[in-house]
Amino acid sequence: MMKTVLSASRRAVRGRGEGAEARIVRSIGEAIADRRLPPGTKLAEESLAEVFGVSRERVRKVLLLLAQRRVVTLIPNRGAFVAKPTAREAREVFEARQVIERAVVEALERIRRPLPDEMSAKLRAHLAREEEADRAGDRMALIRLSGQFHLLLADFAGNATLAGILADLIDRSSLAIAAFERRSSHSCSATEHRRFVEALESGPPGEALRLMMEHLDGVERQLDLDARPDGAVDLKSVFADRT
Amino acid sequence: MMKTVLSASRRAVRGRGEGAEARIVRSIGEAIADRRLPPGTKLAEESLAEVFGVSRERVRKVLLLLAQRRVVTLIPNRGAFVAKPTAREAREVFEARQVIERAVVEALERIRRPLPDEMSAKLRAHLAREEEADRAGDRMALIRLSGQFHLLLADFAGNATLAGILADLIDRSSLAIAAFERRSSHSCSATEHRRFVEALESGPPGEALRLMMEHLDGVERQLDLDARPDGAVDLKSVFADRT
DNA sequence: CTGGTCCGTTTTGTGCACAATCCGCGGCGT
DNA sequence: ACGCCGCGGATTGTGCACAAAACGGACCAG
Lengths: 243, 243
Hints:
- The structure is a homodimer.
- Chain A is mostly helical.
- Helix content of chain A is 64%, strand content 4%.
- Chain A has helices at residues 11-14, 20-33, 45-52, 56-68, 87-109, 117-136, 139-157, 160-180, 189-202, 207-221, 235-238; strands at residues 42-43, 72-75, 79-82.
- The first copy, chain A, has a 3-stranded antiparallel sheet.
- In chain A, strand 2 and strand 3 form a beta hairpin.
- In chain A, helix 5 crosses helix 7, helix 6 runs antiparallel to helix 9 and helix 7 (139-157) runs antiparallel to helix 8.
- The interface between A and B is medium-sized, with 20 and 21 residues.
- Chain A binds a DNA duplex through residues 44-46, 55-58, 60, 76-79.
- Chains A, B: InterPro entries: GntR_C, TF_FadR/GntR_C, Tscrpt_reg_HTH_GntR, WH-like_DNA-bd_sf, WH_DNA-bd_sf.
- Chains A, B: It holds the Pfam family FCD.
């Protein structure tokens, strides 16, 4: 038996209910984080309403929520688009992440070793999943898992408010990466995550923090944040050495 | 001449326009921060629509935005209420503020002294306003100015994203203070702010940071975060030593 | 006096229809 | 060939009407 049957005739079942909006928000949010919806993509209300089997105003509400989280941009009388961060905003987001994740890791380092079994177990289980996705070459899963890893750490730190803020920043990081990623590079984060966990469990004090800061720096440095915003490219330099 | 004339007959002028929603959000947000709307207050859609001279769905949208910022709580089929943070949430908010404001002050301390004229001037102007509100005993103005002070510092730090996050946290601080303030105490923050600015301008390195952390600790310590949430009070202990 | 049920009123939730706005395209003039 | 203007189609924005649900009071039974 299939898990869920997607069909227009089922809209009464799929579309309704308390958490319908939350489901759609998650769904779109994940699609954006996974880059199935690249920055700049138009999100037409009618289409989304059809896809999710809900009325147009429900979609409208969802888009308003996503806009508040800066994941989509709402342009009056033009519609909703997947947000396309500026280079400046991208830098700010990564800086904000460093600020918050530093605090998270500092809190985690204050926990007496050995780490609680549950925490350790969850971390190792997560690493296993990341490495499997890595082996399988499942890029989308890897991106999602990478975000979840940082969020998992924030949860362990015990401050749900900070974790919530970080969740937003992680989504926006995905957006920034999608917008500014260099064609080349991409050192897998799975191994860096593993090293971090090892440092956290049995490394010298401060080692985990150092690794995390380097990790975030590394991710940011893989971006091409000097690129001009689209449409402002210098045509002269682009065609300089062409004949 | 008065700045703005509030009148129902002006609804066509006041209610319309691009920034109508932003205006209402600010208006309600300030009212909550100023504690003219204490935690738990019901925010009926129809009433608000009438007050601001807009349609009910516009109010609805505004309430959705405020709910996203955790300033109001939306209970399905019950309506919107001014959020009433739990003690845990209050602690989390203050901890989050420390995390972010530490980063802000560290960034400010990295600026070479003397501080740029504009920055210095704005800070001093702000201090003057705070002290005047203090002398005048204008409690509401003092609360608002106190929040603006911290936000001003974040602006100077140059990260708009972090500043935006902090703005939310400051609003929620006001809520927490309103919910957990002790009847007694309240050391004026104006003098602490002045000392901070002096330390920032000409104090030894780290002094400003120390003052800011103490300041935030002080604010939090003025709260009674051990109070049980309303309705869950332990009647036995309340009437323990009564006859 | 306590506790429970029913019903009217008030408030919130949702779909729909219509108004407003914008985009693309074709025509026209320079 | 380039740019300006205006129109048709499509998309978004908004008010309205009705459906759904909750609160409060009245009434009643124990």
